[in-house]
Description:
The chain is mainly α. Helix 1 packs across helix 3 (53-68). The protein has one domain: Winged helix-like DNA-binding domain superfamily/Winged helix DNA-binding domain (Arc Repressor Mutant, subunit A), CATH 1.10.10. It has helices at residues 28-36, 41-47, 53-68, and strands at residues 2-3, 8-10, 20-21. Strands 1-2-3 form a three-stranded antiparallel β-sheet.
Amino acid sequence: MKYLNDRITVDESICNGKPTIRGKRITVETILDFLSAGDSIDDILKNYPSLEKEDIYESLKFASSFLGKMTIKGTAA
Length: 77
């Protein structure tokens, strides 16, 4: 398992290697999907009681950082 920061991990054997929260089977993508659908942080925490607010904030930071490295051609800078 590789830690991308304190809360975001990547493991080829978990969720096909997608970034997950602390090695759980909850992807950053899932959290972002819930938020983009209008769910609140409290809604997400109710659905996933093993998560913490900081996990959601780190998911947002991770996505922002990732997008900040993208170029117009869609490749990492």
